[in-house]
Queue: 2 jobs
Job 1
Amino acid sequence: MKILVNGAWRDTRSAELTRALEELGYGSTVVSTAVNGEFVPLAQRAETRLADGDRLEVLAPMQGG
Amino acid sequence: MLPIYQTQLRSRLMLGTARYPSPAILAEAVRAARAEVVTVSLRRESAGERAGQAFWSLIRELGVRVLPNTAGCHSVKEAVTTAHMAREVFGTPWIKLEVIGEDDTLQPDVFGLVDAARSLCAEGFEVFPYTTEDLVVAERLLSAGCRVLMPWGAPIGSGRGLNNLFGLKALRAHFPEVPLIIDAGLGVPSHAAQALELGFDAVLVNTAVAQARDPVQMAGAFAQAVEAGFAARQAGPIEPRDLAAPSTPLIGTAFRG
């Protein structure tokens, strides 16, 4: 399955968001997620299913003004 | 003490965390500024680099409060979604709400700002809106549920100081009880002192410190300026006048009469 992760196309085997994040290398990181522009809280990641062509945003703390 | 939502702040200088030469210099600058609140942001995280994880560890070690922003958001939807994501990652209801309306000046889209503020306040966020000095917009933001306002001094990163003194003074006079924090555009410590002398409650500074030749020394200078400005406000400054008023008493002046 191809999904757009932070603007770049990536292949994932898992459709379940938590597993897909692990597969993509975000396993133990502090991140927040959105799928197709909608916020997906941590508590809902396990039940969130990804589909081919979905846009996944993975955001982390960063410097800001 | 400065009451901001349910928090009492001692420091009236807030510091941004972007554009420092290194993480170590950022940490030193936060300490030199004696800042209690620093602004942070959310960005796309690369799984390989994990830059965000290292930054977050550094901020937690500093023991300061974080004020996440929605920088870079150009629509209500983006700003509201970013606010939700920030609340989860940073574990705070505080959000510095930015909805950018124009790319050359980075001035806020005040229409989108009010919409986003209304939505976020209703969802329990404690919103710090980055706004202009416009009184009507300020009134709308307060009606939306904001309990603090962050008017700009000048465009972000411009270092020009308080661009519209008349407008900012009118804002201060019109909302004497609302915490007002000057956000953006300050260049040197005297700008910060001026803001506090005019009765603004605090300032947020980033570029002026981070891009100074010595950010740590500049952070300390801003801290002193903010303290001086606040003390001066408490002391009651004199009103400017157009003509001279002799400071030395005239009674008993030699060679007269």
Job 2
Amino acid sequence: MEQLLQQYQSVTQNKVMHWFNAGNINDFPENGGACVKYKSKQIAVYNFTRKSAWYACQNLCPHKMEMVLSRGMIGDASGIPKVACPLHKKTFSLENGENLNGEDYKIATYPVKIENENVYIGFTD
Amino acid sequence: MKKIIVIGNGMVGYKFCEKLVSKPNRNDYEIEVFGEEPRPAYDRVHLSEYFGEKSAEELLMAPANWYQENNIKLHTSSLISKIDTQKKEITTYRNETYTYNYLVIATGSSPFIPPIKGSEKAGVFVYRTLEDLDAMKSYASKIKKEGKAKAAILGGGLLGLEAANAAKELGMETHVVEFAPRLMPRQLDLPASNLLKSKIESMDIKVHLEKATSEIVGNGAIEAMQFNDDTNLKVDMLIISAGIRPRDELAREAGIKVGERGGIWVNNQMKTSAEDVYAIGEVALYNNGIYGLVAPGYDMAHVAVEQITGGDVTMVSSIDMSTQLKLIGTEVASFGDPFIENDDVSVIAFENKHKGIYKRINVTKDGKKLLGGILVGDASDYNTLFQLYINEMKLPENPEDLILGARGGESSSVGSVMDFPDSAQICSCESVTKGSICGMIKDETCTSLSDVVKSTKATTGCGGCKPMVVDLVNETLKSLGKEVKETICEHFHYNRQELYDLIKINKVQTYDEALNLFGKGDGCETCKPLLASLFASIYMETANKQVTIQDSNDRFLANIQRNGTYSIVPRVPGGEISPEKLMVLGKVAQKYDLYTKITGGQRIDLFGAELHQLPLIWKELIDAGFESGHAYGKSLRTVKSCVGSTWCRYGMHESVSFAIEIENRYRGLRSPHKLKGGVSGCIRECAEARGKDFGLIAVEGGWNLYVCGNGGATPKHAILLAEQLDDETCIKYLDRFLMFYIRTAAPLTRTAPWLEKLDGGIEYLKKVVIEDSLGIAEDLEKEMQGLVDKYECEWKQAIEDPEMMKRFKHFVNTDDSDDNIEYVSLRDQKMPKAWV
Ligand code: SRM
Ligand SMILES: Cc1cc2nc3c(=O)[nH]c(=O)nc-3n(C[C@H](O)[C@H](O)[C@H](O)COP(=O)(O)OP(=O)(O)OC[C@H]3O[C@@H](n4cnc5c(N)ncnc54)[C@H](O)[C@@H]3O)c2cc1C
Ligand code: SF4
Ligand code: FES
């Protein structure tokens, strides 16, 4: 379990070593998420059309360790973009992965950039 | 910079840190904390919830990174073995030493183990830490496999009863053994204890009073308890809950003054006899007492913080010992001095054995002051009584009204919370007064309940004060002329009915449009599904249209399961299914290796399909004539039937045919919550129709129509709406009833609670539905017919449209499936691997 979680460490824009092409922007539903596979990782990618922004985070919900976050609903809490896990509705900030219910677990987030209608996710590996 | 060392990271030690870091001069201090337990401080008060839904993590007082973020050095698994008050130094079990400027001892207490022979045997437990609970859990499951399942609790106090409840939850036959002639001897008098005893026994927990245990018998592991009166009790496991002993050993060895019967002596500044050494929480002996409750401990933490940082707050002289028993399935509370009886006191008691209620209050002879009391069976007045007591407030003219209710037809005899003085302590766990709650709203620091909770932490302890805090917030807002209404969430300041009307009148078509017109921000998991439901109820649009505002089950037209796979529930109207169709379900389940189960709703559930398999499976089912069962939606589920007059020798009408007709009429209908129906062929009621949102029972001359029944956590029988109806009238009334409910109910409110809140209740509903008192009947019928005509199976829609199919893939960039899913096998079928 721990090992599974260890795979996911937040990456900041300036640390990116590799921009991975995750697909065309049309592969991702408006104001919703979809999941991308990168090596052994599962990454949730959200096309937050209302904010004209893209976000990426681990697909693994740290609450019960299930690969489900890409299927969660997105929205905002006082302006902070967030995703609600489909299993028990724990919510996480898409900006920094913070749990917004005040619990201990966090999720890792990754930078996203769009170039020529392609969606790129930044990794360090 | 001065260094503060805290020994013990329990509830009170943690509270000390929390209070300290919020001080403005916090940076003058370096804080280092040593705790013996492997985890940071957790909520011991709610420890028993660890047996239920709460994980160890959820019980933490603050996340592990809180300490780091607040610049506190926390050492877990670090027992302190010595204090040297001369050198101002402590020593850890690893022989490392640390020096302090101030030392705070918050080592709590340990369970008292009476000197009974044999208490070291296997199977004997105490109840204080998460590790204790883990050990009990695994021991219980081990012995249960050997067919042993008898547990006893030594001690019938507050904690003992909580432990008894836990033993019961572990599936053990449970016995409580108490030395005194009463249960909860510190809180209850004899009549209260007798009542509680019979309540507890009715829950299948056996109570043995006046039993002194002389020996724990067994060969290595416990086998029986031997009592002084030569009787014995065979048990396989024992939980000792016989009181607490302060963990004062460190102080004792360091020459710090301790009480005769234990506890570190402190003055009203929480100072011990040694310079710059403080003691707080359950280890501290204050005013000759050790208080086994968390609230006085928190007050002590507050006093110690103030004293150290230069304030002059001191501890109050009388400690309040009011308590409420949690969990055991009956309400028990005591406050103030529950027993006091002398010439200056009138004791007023009320007992209703039949209903299982006992209430006692102790009032001064002049009727002016409440001194204490006991409530068993119904503790709903606890908060009010407690406030009257703790604030020494004036009582009503006839103090007995306090427990009997005013009998003159007037409303409540006790004023509202708004009548309390500003100094009234509303949340005793976090010491929050009425004045501070109302003040924050008046000066606009807070504008809502959640703001108040965030800033004051009120309600976050035991939660008992929640109703009062809600009232205070709402009443204060009202008094400021601010409207208090049940709005949906931060994005829409309307209630469901208002939004329903707004969308309909303005012909709004999409969620984004609604948000732009009537809302703000970007939406959330509360308002999105709610609006999705409104669009469905108004336009009968399926969940395929605005996919990403659907609750996640609706988004994928299936119920998500604990491992992220889905279940498949095709509609089986009325529960009638042909052998051919039954075989199709069997074949599909076999082909895709799906766990198969008959549901409680007369249909078949196939579990364990991965996202990408859903359309494949549904294609096969639809080809065989099945359609969506909407098990995932807040919509019509099943109309349960009994076999009725076609086969049954008692049947009066064809219940199966009618159930099928109704289920097909309302299938796909989205509503504020799910809807269930039932049709029984005679009053023997084999379809449980009266447990449903709508139920029909065949009688001489037609159908009796019942509405607003509910299973679930608060079961309610449906109530008779109309009698002896023919099929056509029955459907007409149903159309009106359902549409009226859909238009007016609050989000996620089943028909039963909806009716309960409906002004005028069932009589009003009868007027609307039968007599058309609002003049909307025709409208309701038309609207329902419109929805019925527009029905479409959303699964059929989805598999026929390649664009819609795109959403059923685990990864967008590969066809791989989720590699995180693991199964185990049980009774020849697969099951998700259990969560850790
Ligand atoms: C599958 C089934 C249990 C079974 O194996 O038999 C079931 C399973 C679930 N029920 Fe149920 N209920 C099932 C029959 C019932 C019944 C019995 C009945 O319908 O006759 C009841 C009591 C009757 C009633 O609803 O009044 C019932 C009362 C609930 C409740 C409590 C509702 C309430 O008003 O308090 C919930 C919780 C909720 O909806 O908020 C619930 C919620 C759930 C959920 C959806 C919980 C969840 O969110 O995951 C379960 C998921 C189902 C799934 O994934 O497929 N289930 N549930 C039954 C499906 C029936 C069907 O064919 O559609
Ligand atoms: C099951 C249960 C239910 C309860 N229910 C209620 C309730 O409903 N209401 C209520 O008010 N109270 C309740 N209580 C009591 C409440 O939990 C205690 O009053 C509270 O936890 C006391 O806090 P504390 O910090 O003084 O002690 P603790 O929480 O016991 O913390 C002391 C900590 O110090 C550590 N420690 C001890 N010695 C050393 C050492 N030498 N070196 C390092 N660390 C050390 C211990 O391991 C422990 O972690 C309940 C208790 C239990 C067990
Ligand atoms: S009662 Fe219903 S919700 Fe609860 S576990 Fe059973 S199926 Fe799930
Ligand atoms: S698994 Fe995500 S919230 Fe429980």
